[in-house]
């Protein structure tokens, strides 16, 4: 039997996943059960769109709850290393100078389930995340993206 792969998380990222699970279990699932009961009371289920929609929602909620429980079970909170911030590691925030666009970009390296590039969070498993790990201030990094090769210089590590 193979060991299940651990999923890296920041403390905040795992908290959000746990909050979503709690919301689904304590708010959404009971609300959905009530919707099914109300739709069932309307009679003929074969042509009851509300009933079918509620049953479909029930299936989605159950699937998402199972998925979140699996993610939480395999999660591993990784604290950013204390001490000098001389190299890029999980949890650090990196200030990059994009040579192609002549703009600065700021990203925090997080786990794949926390990734939100529009809000400055990129996964350590993304091409850019993988290219940055272990690098130091002043290093230049080339990353192949769907839009072509992007070149960055690491300006700062926080």
Task: Give the tags.
158 residues, 2 domains, 3 helices, 39% helix, two-stranded parallel ribbon, Chitinase A, domain 3
Write a structural description.
This protein is α/β, with parallel strands linked by helices and 158 residues long. Helix content is 39%, strand content 25%. The chain has a five-stranded mixed β-sheet. Strands 1-2 form a two-stranded parallel ribbon. The longest helix is centred in the N-terminal third of the chain and has 30 residues, at 11-40. It starts with 6 loop residues before the first strand and ends with a strand.
Query: What share of the residues does DSSP label as strand, in percent?
Result: 15-25%
Number of strands: 7
| Average pLDDT taken over every residue | 91
Helical stretch count? 3
CATH level 1 name of the largest domain = Mainly Alpha
User: The CATH topology of the largest domain is what?
Assistant: Helix Hairpins
CATH superfamily of the largest domain: Transcription elongation factor, GreA/GreB, N-terminal domain
- Rg estimate, integer Å: 22 Å
Q: Which structural category fits the helices and strands?
A: alpha/beta
Helical residue percent band: 25-40%
CATH A-level architecture of the largest domain: Orthogonal Bundle
Q: What quaternary form is this? A: single chain
Topology, element by element:
Elements (H helix, E strand, L loop, with lengths): L6 E3 L1 H30 L8 H26 E3 L15 E6 L4 E8 L10 E3 L3 H6 L7 E6 L2 E10 L1
Parallel strand pairs: 1-2, 4-5
Antiparallel strand pairs: 3-4, 3-7, 6-7
């Amino acid at each position: 039997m193979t060991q299940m792969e651990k999923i890296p998380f920041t403390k905040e990222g795992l908290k959000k996943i746990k909050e979503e699970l709690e919301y689904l279990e304590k708010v959404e699932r009971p609300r959905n059960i009530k919707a099914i009961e109300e739709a069932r009371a309307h009679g003929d289920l074969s042509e009851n769109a509300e009933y079918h929609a509620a049953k479909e929602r029930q299936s989605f909620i159950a699937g998402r709850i199972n998925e979140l429980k699996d993610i939480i079970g395999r999660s591993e909170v990784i604290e950013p290393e204390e001490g000098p911030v001389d190299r890029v590691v999980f949890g650090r925030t990196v200030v990059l100078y994009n040579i192609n666009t002549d703009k600065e970009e700021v990203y925090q390296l997080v786990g794949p389930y926390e990734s939100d590039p529009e809000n400055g969070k990129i996964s350590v498993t993304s091409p850019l995340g993988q290219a940055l790990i272990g690098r130091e201030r002043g290093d230049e990094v080339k990353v192949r993206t769907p839009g072509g090769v992007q070149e960055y210089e690491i300006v700062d590590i926080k």
